[in-house]
Amino acid sequence: MGSLTERLHRARTAGIRAYRARLHPDTPNPAGTTSTASRETVAEAGDGVNGFDVLAAVVGLPVSTWRYRWEDDEVRHLGPMAQDWRAHLGLGADDKTICCTDANGVAIVAIQALHRQLTDLQAEVRELRAQKAEPAAHTPGAETPRV
User: Fold this and answer.
1) Which one of 57, 62, 94, 146 has the minimum C-beta count within 10 Å?
2) d(CA 30, CA 16)
3) Contact call for residues 51 and 106 (beta carbons, < 8 A)
């Protein structure tokens, strides 16, 4: 029969397989997949989000390492607590769990916001370098600037 941890793991694994089979009936073994929303399965599509607002919430989100009470002492996970997640981002059904769909969405939006910041900064650096090079180019006897 196994330990309680082993039985819980087997039950959870069986439940996940059954859930995935309902979501992906045409896929014989959807192992390694996670499911998220599609336009066909959402009840109500919302508006876009401000990635910079989400990024600011993520920056303020406490993150720690932890383990579940039933796991061995050497097991560690990394992430926020569900209560902090709910308080900072307002996502999910409650403050007891973090939905992987929400975690994926937050990560993607934060990455997009960081990318926009990076490309804006790169453009600004190029512009400043060009401005710095212009006066030297007009000075008689000036060397060609190195960039």
Assistant:
1) 146
2) 10
3) no
Which has the closest alpha carbon to 105: 87, 118, 92, 119?
92
Q: Which of 40, 45, 77, 85 is nearest to 61 (CA)?
A: 85
Q: For residue 134, which phi and psi values (nearest 5 degrees)?
A: -60, -50
Q: Report how far residue 100's alpha carbon sits from residue 34's, in angstroms, rounded to the nearest whole number.
A: 8
DSSP 140: T
Report in angstroms the alpha-carbon separations of 39 from 19, 33, 43, 44, 51. 19, 18, 9, 9, 21
Tell me the pLDDT tens digit for each residue of 64-85: 999 999 999 999 999 999 999 9
Q: Residue 116: which residues within 8 A CB-CB, separation 6 or more?
A: 51, 52
